[in-house]
């Protein structure tokens, strides 16, 4: 999903305060404007429409979305808390640049958190409980088949969040979701085949969890995060 400032249909132009992130106008409803702007900006980060190292101003983005600069600025402040952007005084917000090492470190931290949790769940959660998560796993498979990184990222986050929620620890879920978002940008260029393989691991993981196969669960989760970097 791409957004951008346009001076004629289909032709994006740059604007003072930073480059326009994309080329497709997205209607923003007046209810919960800040939340919709935040979702749109997160999507632009995952797709690469907001480019690492570039500075974007709230007024320019606000003009693009047809809203004032205030909800854009508020959404950008949230993204700053999440580590996606940093404030540039009197200019706007710069999209954070991350190298391969930092992305690998994020994947390692996620594995350190999720591997022991998944092992514990494999030992304690009844097999029938995992059936309720099948639709979420299948949703990741469908999203992967489209080849759209933003669609896949959303379903992937929902699946992992639902798994971890079974541990009954809200702080765990919040921390894991924050790490997941941080690991999504800058976007790692992964083709459709890589996304499909990644989604297939979700289904395999559910099978192993339902079977109570601890070693299979441990190996699948480790390989899953190793493939993210």
Rg over CA atoms: 19 Å
The share of residues in helices is: 55-70%
Q: Record the strand order, biggest sheet.
A: 3-5-4
Order of helices and strands: EEHEHHEEHHHHHH
Number of helices: 9
Oligomeric composition of the shown chains:
single chain
Characterize the largest beta sheet: strand count, sense, and whether it forms a barrel: 3 strands, antiparallel
Low-confidence stretches: 1-16
Name the structural class.
Answer: mainly alpha
User: How far apart are the termini?
Assistant: 24 Å
What's the shape?
Answer: elongated
Can you describe this structure?
This protein is mainly α and 229 residues long. The chain is built from 9 helices and 5 strands; from the N terminus they run ββαβααββαααααα. The protein has helices at 33-47, 58-65, 69-81, 100-124, 134-146, 149-165, 170-182, 192-211, 214-226, and strands spanning 6-8, 11-12, 55-56, 85-88, 92-95. Strands 3-5-4 form a 3-stranded antiparallel sheet. Strands 1-2 form a two-stranded antiparallel sheet. A hairpin with a 3-residue loop joins strand 4 and strand 5 (92-95). Helix 2 packs across helix 3 (69-81) and helix 5 runs antiparallel to helix 6 (149-165). The longest helix is centred in the middle third of the chain and has 25 residues, at 100-124. The protein starts with 5 loop residues before the first strand and ends with a helix. Residues 1-16 have low confidence and may be disordered.
Strand-helix topology:
Layout: E1 6-8, E2 11-12, H1 33-47, E3 55-56, H2 58-65, H3 69-81, E4 85-88, E5 92-95, H4 100-124, H5 134-146, H6 149-165, H7 170-182, H8 192-211, H9 214-226
Antiparallel strand pairs: 1-2, 3-5, 4-5
Helix pairs in contact: 1-3, 2-3, 4-7, 4-8, 4-9, 5-6, 5-8, 6-7, 8-9
């Amino acid at each position: 999903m791409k957004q951008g400032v346009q001076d004629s249909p289909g032709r994006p132009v740059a604007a003072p305060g930073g480059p326009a992130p994309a080329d497709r106008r997205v209607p923003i409803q007046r209810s919960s404007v800040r939340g919709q702007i935040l979702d749109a900006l997160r999507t632009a980060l995952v797709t690469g429409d907001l480019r690492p190292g570039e500075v974007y101003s709230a007024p320019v983005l606000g003009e693009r979305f047809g809203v004032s600069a205030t909800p854009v600025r508020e959404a950008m402040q949230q993204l700053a808390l999440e580590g996606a952007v940093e404030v540039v005084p009197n200019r706007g917000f710069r999209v954070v640049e991350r190298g391969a090492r930092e992305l690998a470190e994020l994947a390692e931290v996620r594995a350190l958190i999720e591997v022991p949790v998944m092992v514990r769940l494999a030992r304690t959660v009844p097999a029938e409980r995992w059936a309720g998560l099948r639709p979420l796993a299948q949703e990741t498979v469908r999203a992967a088949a489209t080849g759209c990184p933003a669609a896949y990222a959303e379903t992937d986050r929902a699946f992992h969040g639902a798994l971890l929620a079974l541990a009954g620890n809200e702080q765990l879920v919040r921390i894991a979701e924050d790490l997941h978002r941080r690991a999504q940008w800058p976007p790692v260029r992964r083709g459709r085949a890589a996304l499909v393989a990644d989604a297939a691991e979700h289904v395999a993981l559910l099978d192993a969890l339902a079977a109570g196969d601890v070693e299979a669960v441990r190996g699948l989760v480790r390989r899953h995060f190793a493939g993210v970097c």
